[in-house]
Design goal:
Radius of gyration: 22 Å
Number of strands: 15
CATH architecture of the largest domain: 2-Layer Sandwich
Oligomer: single chain
Helix content: 25-40%
Order of helices and strands: HEHHEEEEEHEEEHEHEEEHHEHHEH
Strand content: 15-25%
CATH class of the largest domain: Alpha Beta
Length: 358
């Protein structure tokens, strides 16, 4: 029975995903696109329509016979909440099935607050966002936070600068408070999921900390302990300033020192050195920059990181790398967190969870 249920869910996700991508599509086209039988597609369509998730969108062009009924997604049939929990604040987004942000809330958090207080406040804000929505129409909550994080268990490990969070089971704690499904991941991984892009790309996030989210070969990379992307703790200067992680001369510590001295150019150049190391190691062809430090001077960071890449790559004309700033700005991480919940619903790879409809 479990296997049959999983197969039904897989087929339903395949159909729903094709409807979302196509925007308007007939059952005949759905069968061709998914490889399912016409009968299977018909049953899935009936069930989705009964649940209010899809609806008729008029008739298609006639090809000699009766015009086919077109189907479309009903974006406001279901909702998710995407959350960014960082060291000094909360960002919450109420997001519909189409990936559109209906409401946004941003509020500060005292870094000295106990984890319990922060999670209580987060739960209150989620409840307030969802107050007008029937619970059966809520798919769940996606939460992105600084690492190190074991994404499989939802447990935090020695978060830099937040010792009180070590060993906190974030997913279980929030699920208990909310009574909803909760997905958790690192902020950098959520960031790389916040917009479609190359199959080999990185999201580099300079904020209170510095990290990177990675997509390689079209798949999100988390590593053996789901903690890949500790980009900020590559050592560039063994004699440099102490880092909160315990090492000296980490890229994060060097960037933070430059930012503390109000030297954006120096911080951007240092970030470029780290990005060049990443590109040489992993051969990504797209780098998206995000985080409050970057957003304070986005064009300066983009141009200076790109300039360092041009200098450091042995053949920049062959090894071209697109450098840009996150389209969603300061909402990128929370939007990617929403994608953690939306992706499985549409049977899409995580890297395509927020791909816009055509």
């Amino acid at each position: 029975m479990a296997n049959l249920t999983a197969l039904r869910d897989h087929n339903t996700a395949a159909v729903l995903g094709r409807i979302r991508i196509a925007e308007e599509i007939s059952q005949v086209e759905l069968a061709a696109a998914t490889g399912l039988t016409a009968q299977a597609v018909s049953k899935i369509v009936q069930r989705l329509a009964a649940e209010g998730m899809i609806t008729a969108a008029g008739r298609g062009r006639s090809t000699g016979g009766k015009p086919r009924t077109l189907l479309r997604l009903v974006p406001q049939a279901r909702w998710v909440v995407g959350v960014q929990l960082d060291r000094s604040g909360l960002t919450l987004l109420l997001v519909d099935l189409g990936g559109r942000v209906e409401k946004a809330v941003t509020l500060p958090v005292d870094p000295r607050s106990a984890p319990r207080e922060v999670m209580d406040r987060l739960a209150e804000q989620v409840e307030a966002l969802l107050a007008p929505i029937p619970r059966e129409h809520v798919l769940g909550v996606g939460v992105a936070c600084p690492g190190p994080l074991d994404q499989r268990t939802g447990v935090l490990h020695q978060v830099t600068g937040r010792p009180g969070w070590d060993g906190i089971s974030l997913r279980a704690e929030l699920a208990a408070r909310l009574g909803l499904a909760v997905a958790v991941d690192k902020d950098t991984t959520a960031g790389v999921l916040s917009q479609p892009g190359s199959a080999d790309r990185a999201f580099v996030y300079l904020d209170d900390g510095l990290g990177a989210g990675l997509v390689l070969g079209g798949r999100v990379q988390r590593g053996a302990r789901t903690n890949a992307g500790e980009f900020g703790h590559q050592v560039l200067d063994p004699l440099g300033p102490h880092c909160a992680c315990g090492s000296r001369g980490c890229l994060e510590a060097l960037c933070r020192a430059a930012l503390a001295a109000a030297d954006q150019d120096r911080a951007a150049d240092l970030l470029g050195e780290g990005v060049a190391n990443l590109v040489r190691l992993l051969d990504v062809d797209e780098v998206v920059l995000g985080g409050r430090a970057v957003l304070a001077a986005p064009e300066n960071y983009r141009t200076r990181v790109d300039a360092v890449l041009q200098q450091r790559l042995p053949d920049p004309h062959w090894q071209q790398v697109a450098v840009s700033v996150a389209r969603a700005g300061n909402r990128a991480v929370a939007l990617g967190a929403a994608g953690l919940v939306l992706g499985p619903l549409f049977g899409e790879g995580e890297a395509d969870a927020l791909t816009p409809r055509r």
